[in-house]
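Final paragraph of the annual report: two paired records, presented back to back.
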Amino acid sequence: MSGSQCCENPPTLSPSSGGGSVTEIGGLKAYVCGPPDSKLAVLLISDIYGYEAPLLRKLADKVAAAGFHVVVPDFFHGDPYVPENSERPLPVWIRYHGTDKGFEEAKPVIAALKSKGITALGAAGFCWGAKVVVELAKSDFIQSAVLLHPSLVTVDDIKEVKAPIAILGAEFDHMTPPELIKQFREVLLSKPEQLNCFVKLFPGVSHGWTVRYDEGDEKAVKNAEEAHADMLDWFLQCL
């Protein structure tokens, strides 16, 4: 997780970005959008830069437009990673914001959503968030999972997955290189219960390409939007 790719192209955080609103769910602040009466929800779990990243919220709005109730929790409690803070480099910051803590804090969020009438829940995780999602996918917390340029996810994690899962990987990714993405695919396809899965490797892109791209770069936008479409299609198929 200490790799520089996790920190590249940091977003300019904006608490007012997006067309939704910020509320509290399951003890966490969260960006929420989409029809409040929908029975289908999608949880988006951010990378180390947190829930105020404008491109992440823009993606949440896109998923919401398809009819899902979308929730982007603040798992970092107002303390996202700040690359300019030399006193808290990533290895220090991560001690306070482990993915194990994120997994535990996701449970009451999910419980709160189910108490409001949500009958099926999908979750997508980006980098740091992908590890939280894969943990949720090992049980019945969620009914569909998507991992986008995951970090910290192991072959053993994938062996334990029970929910339908899509994995979107980058050609240039030191955290989860193509060889590991291929191993994930082999493990999923070898499961005796024939788990519904989708694994795709995106050529020419780097770790973080789905939520930390340059909006002025036409090719980068196209690559990100292709991944967004794959993610949305997966939720439409599985939820």
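The closing record of the year follows.
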Amino acid sequence: HGAVKAEDTFKTSPFHLDLWFYFTLQNWVLDFGRPIAMIILPLEWFPLNKPSAGDYFHMAYNVITPFLLLKLIERSPKTLPRSMVYVSIITFVMGASIHLVGDSVNHRLIFSGYQHHLSVRENPIIRNLKPETLIDSFELLYYYDEYLGHSMWYIPFFLILFIYFTGCFTAVAEQSRMPLAALLLVGPSSLYYWYLVTEGQIFILYIFTFFAMMALVMHQRRKGLVLDSNGLFLFYSFIITLLLIALWVGWLWNDKTLRKKYPGVIYIPEPWAFYTLHMSTLH
């Protein structure tokens, strides 16, 4: 499985500006931009019985993202567990493809009056369907979109990032600093991870990944190793993401409608649920 070699310990790599820039850019355009493109582009260009512009964005994302993740792994100065990486990439593509279908239908339902801040059975266009077994079909579609698709998409995504993070340590203290380019990118990167965690409802997965990163940093520090520029970029992105999530939750803490949709102990509303509740009428 590609155990770390002894001679890898003191290898380092420069900041991967090209990969991190492309990674951040395509995340914003192809993932965050998907539903926006679907809403703002004329419906006549993309009929409801055909893929939307957002679907084509998703297709591109499903190809480009695993490619960039593999390139990140290739750039690592350490020998990483390749078999785990390959299985994770395969699972990632499968999960993102499942999500593509479910998300496509769910977002197209907006044009028919579907409201994302309500559950499937509470939606006005769904609750009166006959026969009632049709409602079960829509709930199955929602399950594939929000649960199975997200799990098979995001678990390998964060696992790959963590595997890459394990190779971002150096014994040279001078290399543990972020260049200006990294400082400029860390804001957009953190803001995207905020969107990913809140919209994907994957806070538990994110926080466990973050805790694992913190534990690894403390463990490696005892060995005299510190994070290199790539590791610092990823670590600081996750720290700022946590602060953004806290601000988001604090802002919507007393929203009774969203509280009803997210009744659990962990209350983290989805941005698109907020949009359909408070801003879609303005749009």
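Strands lie at 169-170, 226-227. This concludes the annual technical report; the extension proposal builds directly on these records.
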